[in-house]
Amino acid sequence: MFIEGASELANKADVVDSLNVFPVPDGDTGTNMNLTITSGVKEIQKSQQGDVAEVASAFAKGLLMGARGNSGVILSQLFRGFSKAVERHSELTTEQFAKALQAGVATAYKAVMKPVEGTILTVAKDTAKAAEQAAKKETDFPSFLTTIIKAAERSLASTPDLLPVLKEVGVVDSGGQGLVYIYAGFLQALTGERKPSLLAEPSIGDLINAEHFHAQNAQSHMETGDIEFGYCTELMVRFDREKLEKQPFHEEAFREKLSEYGDSLLVVSDDDLLKVHIHAEYPGEVLTEAQAYGPLMQVKIENMREQHARLTTNDSHAGHAPATARPKAEFAIVTVAMGSGIEKLFKGLGADQVIAGGQTMNPSTEDIVQAIQKANAKQVIILPNNGNIVMAAKQAAEVSEADVEVVATKTVPQGLAALLAFNPSNSLQENAAAMAEAMKEVKTGELTYAVRDTQMDNQTINKGDFMGIADKKIIACGPRKQDVAKKLLDEMIDEEAEVLTIITGEDATADDTSQIEAYVNERHADMEVDIVEGGQPLYSYIFSVE
User: Fold this and answer.
1) Alpha-carbon distance 273 to 286, whole Å?
2) For 207-352, where are the E strands, in sequence order?
3) Is the pTM of this model over 0.85?
């Protein structure tokens, strides 16, 4: 049921995106819910466990780890509560299923600082109430699910009456629609039948027209300037016991503190992890508050004004009323990287433009100037992430009309560390100085291969050997990738090191990566190890030690 629910949502994610106008019209609700539930399914498949409690627990864990956006975090909480309610069951009756839905609703409402009716929360609540009543009469699961999906669709159809912005634009709530698709997938898993709507009377078809939304999405009815808090900020923290001893974590107090920085706030935590979603104007303040309790595991910052402007601009290109010229953002970050995973990582941390390039493929001054222009900002910071690109970046800064600073990062880990130090409330010069200082706090290691026989750094290197390079010096070489990686990491990790990030290249194997991770866990037990799929060419691994 979970897998089929995820599949149904994935098939309709574009429709859900097109409905997204609340809390911010950034057009990504379907995408975020899809990524969230896909993470849950992957955890189920990885666990390979069979009974109700085990499957629900794995699903909830995956959702929490992969939760993105308002709707994704709420979805994760709905099934977190569901999982807790079924943790002692190996199989479920309709009555137990209904109680689990109720538990999910209670958990989700608790996680949201200011619950708003007319959203996914309302649809979940109304569905759970209907399930409670239906379970008193129905013991057959397909009949039971049919009844509660009808209730879910009725609730969805009523969302414009509860949330004025939905009625103004003429849509139902996007998150609620996503949840209805998931419930429909549950039923499809049991019956094998696909039914777009179970209601006898018209439902969502009366409220929206799919063809209309293909050409002109709901976001075009709203103004970019209406977005009060511009940055969708998500982060995950792994609790540090020493920090907690100095400053104990209290979820309600922390939630109250963060409410000062923005809206659309969700805070969830368990014994090990803290997850936060907030729309804030100054994301750096939120990161600072969270880091008091432990290291940042995941960070994603998206400029929602930029997202909305891009969506509405695309509408005008499709032949609708022309959008006004896009106002310049105050700040933008332009960076250089190779590999789809590394590009995604930089964008997730707030980079506005990522230029494809790196070792053996250096972008030109013109390429960087064009990226600055696309960023459309008054002030721009460039992170070259390669020593051979710094000069071109500085030349681009000189000829650009924007006010540009180059932070001379020479590796991907330096660029990531610098980006985390960015604070939009500081001046351009203050940011450049802080980012240049932050990049000094990280050590970079790279694992690549030799294209010819050579002698360098007191090493005899044969063609095809793997080379372990730390801060541009060859530390180790040899025919076995794992042996070279281990020697390199032993050299990089000292007593002050706390976090190792392993960025895997396009030729890195899962077996190699797991063996390297196991070695670090055994040899350097106090190190926190994070693994990121970078997809970079040339370098099997890029290591970052902080």
Assistant:
1) 16
2) 231-238, 262-269, 273-280, 296-303, 329-337
3) no
